[in-house]
Design brief:
Helix content: 40-55%
Low-confidence stretches: 253-259
Mean pLDDT: 87
Strand order of the largest sheet: 2-1-3-4-5
Number of helices: 12
Strand content: 5-15%
Order of helices and strands: EHEHEHEHEHEEHHHHHHH
Shape: globular
CATH superfamily of the largest domain: Response regulator
CATH class of the largest domain: Alpha Beta
Distance between the termini: 32 Å
């Protein structure tokens, strides 16, 4: 399986060099598009929903970090000519996987991409472990209480706000701990990371709403907390193996029960 990636880089020579010389296939990656500024980059990301975004920070139109904050991006690698701490701090807050300084050595970039692909594969295995087939269909069983007050309060926050544009940063502020501590504690306690739990909860909600034939996919996406139907379809398929439309057409799913 190849994971998809897009490049957002305004320097033509660097962009073209990345496109031509990076061994995408051997890294199990598929380059599906490039953009030359932050605004067209945002449009490209929203149109293609890539697994990975490789981007510079200082871009025409809007900077790379602002672009990422406007998009449903789970994994990004920054290429930057600046080691500004404020940039790095914001990148960490956005969940950027790695921050590489230009000029980037080919081996360094390939190592970062390879490590990120391994991380994506691990996440896919974790998602697969969440699938339950007792009824012959996919549904996700999620813990409501794990006996740790920080994690339990985070789960309550997800349940109460999953329809909103929330992330680890908002959850950490709510439970009054650092993002890094919450991320580590949540994964250790539940077995999945914060974003996986949030998306799983949203998928469960979508499964319930798909039982109502009066609701179209865009409405279900919105009511389930996904930023757009394209991202909804991508995440739904990662969890269930089907698009929302296929799921509706093929499956009769009983109401999901959270344990």
């Amino acid at each position: 399986m190849a994971y998809t990636i897009v490049i957002v880089e305004d320097e033509r020579l660097i962009r073209e060099d990345l496109e031509r010389t990076t061994p995408w296939e051997s890294l199990q990656l598929e380059l599906i598009g490039s953009a030359v500024d932050g605004l067209s980059g945002e449009q490209l990301i929203k149109a293609t929903d890539p697994d990975i975004v490789l981007t510079d920070i200082r871009l025409p139109g809007q900077d790379g970090l602002t672009m990422l904050s406007h998009c449903p991006v789970s994994h990004a690698i920054i290429l930057s000519g600046h080691s500004d701490f404020a940039y790095m701090r914001k990148a960490i807050q956005l969940g950027v996987y790695d921050y590489l300084l230009k000029p980037v050595d080919d081996g360094e970039l390939e190592a970062a991409l390879s490590a990120l692909v391994v991380k994506l594969q691990e996440e896919d295995r974790e998602l697969a472990s969440l699938r339950q087939r007792d009824t012959g269909e996919d549904f996700i069983v999620l813990p409501r209480s794990v006996g740790n007050h920080v994690v339990d309060n985070t789960i309550a926050f997800i349940i109460g706000h999953f329809q909103e544009a929330i992330g680890l940063q908002e959850a950490a502020l709510t439970v009054n701990v650092s993002e890094s501590h919450l991320s580590r504690l949540f994964k250790e306690t539940t077995g999945i990371n914060f974003l996986q739990y949030l998306n799983a909860w949203r998928v469960n909600r979508a499964i319930e709403l798909l039982q109502d034939p009066r609701l179209n996919i865009a409405t279900i996406s919105n009511h389930s907390g996904f930023p757009n139907p394209g991202y909804f379809a991508k995440i739904f398929r990662r969890f269930t193996g089907k698009t929302p439309s296929q799921y509706r057409d093929e499956c009769t799913v009983p109401q999901v029960t959270m344990c």
